[in-house]
Write a structure and sequence with these properties.
Blueprint: H1 10-25, E1 28-32, E2 41-46, H2 53-63, E3 68-74, H3 75-80, E4 89-92, H4 98-109, E5 115-119, H5 138-145, E6 150-160, E7 168-176, H6 182-204
Helix pairs in contact: 1-2, 4-5
């Protein structure tokens, strides 16, 4: 398993570069949903639609919670993109015993209230048009292993162009207050996503 680090030079460079790239690539961004910072470690759950996803979450974290940014990434992808190891990325390798080490490591990170861990419970990138999400069991195992109370945030991203040459990014947030069962979280996230989609369509109609 590859553990995360935050290189004293590489991480600030990465953070500033990707935030600059967002400003260049999008007509604007809008955060919808007022989620209070409760001073706890944050488990961040988001839909996985593109390579932008982690950058989008990083940008929200910079504006709101300002936690130390960590994200779970498939080991083969992290080895190909080694740079991410020094910007908060840690590995998970499906179908191997090392997956338990990755889940334990994520739970360990969540014992520190200064940390946040981003997960994509779908386990892979899927189409932005996907409207039904199926969660892997890992998120449940992490919450059960974390020894301190964790604030769980649901995040859904929508991108719309309309008449503009550049898209606008809409980021919906809510705090999840249910149980740790991955089935319960899956149902709650799907309900949240449907509500966001309805709100997004109403916003742009």
């Amino acid at each position: 398993m590859i553990r995360a680090s935050h290189h004293i030079i590489l991480f600030p460079f990465f953070r500033n570069y990707v935030l600059w790239k967002m400003k260049r690539s999008f007509a604007g961004t809008e955060i919808i949903g007022n989620v209070p910072d409760k001073g706890k470690a944050v488990l961040w759950i988001a839909n996985h639609v593109s390579w932008w996803d982690g950058i989008w979450v990083l940008s929200v974290n910079q504006k709101t919670f300002r936690r130390k940014f960590h994200f779970m990434m498939l080991e083969e992808q992290l080895r190909k993109n080694w740079f991410f190891q020094f910007t908060g990325g840690f590995s998970v390798k499906k179908g191997t015993r090392s997956i338990l080490e990755s889940l334990n490591y994520a739970a360990e990170l969540l014992q520190n209230p200064k940390n946040m861990v981003l997960m994509f419970p779908q386990g892979e990138i899927q189409s932005m048009h996907q409207q039904q999400f199926y969660f892997e069991k890992g998120v449940e195992k992490i919450l059960l292993k974390a020894q301190k109370e964790v604030q769980t945030i649901f995040h859904a991203n929508f991108v719309d162009y309309l008449s503009q040459p550049k898209p606008t990014l809409y980021q919906y947030l809510t705090e999840y207050k249910g149980g740790s069962s991955h089935y319960e979280m899956e149902e709650a996230y799907n309900r949240f996503y449907r509500e966001c989609l309805t709100a997004q369509m109403a916003k742009l109609s």
